[in-house]
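User: Some background: our group keeps a shared notebook of sequences we're curious about, and every so often someone picks one and asks for a predicted structure to add to the entry. Today it's my turn. The entry only has the sequence so far, pasted here. Could you supply the structure so I can complete it?
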Amino acid sequence: MLRLLMYLVPWALTIYAFIDCLNTPEDEAKHLPKIAWVFIILLFWIVGPIAWLAAGKLRNVPAGGRTPSEWHRNHRTQYVAPDDNPEFLKSLAEDNKKDDSLLKSWEADLRRREEELKRGERKEPEGGAKGEKGETGEKRDRKDGEEA
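Assistant: Of course. Here's the predicted structure to add to the notebook entry:
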């Protein structure tokens, strides 16, 4: 098992350093051009990856969250908190206007229905007497006739 580990660790280190070197932007490679670092990592199997990890790359975090390719650096979206985003605040205001108009139409419909119910209750007692449970005169008479 240890014999396998003796070959596996340097191999994994080489693969990691190689991928890290390829993903590093050219201006972050220190001391040598990036292509020279690739050859050093691949040719000098144990020493090359260690040299790359120790001295080949700037290890501080660059400002602006840099990414490996130039295209990504120039086309990165800047996220803004919702409270600071004027477009988001504008959309909230528009949603509030829609909600207010919907609420007003519901209130008007409710008032109209309440008025219809009030007018309907006033008219029915004149035409036909309602019982306690809202029954018309005919239904009440049928019930009374059944009981008798």
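Suggested note for the entry: The chain is about 70% helix and 0% strand. The longest helix spans residues 86-127.
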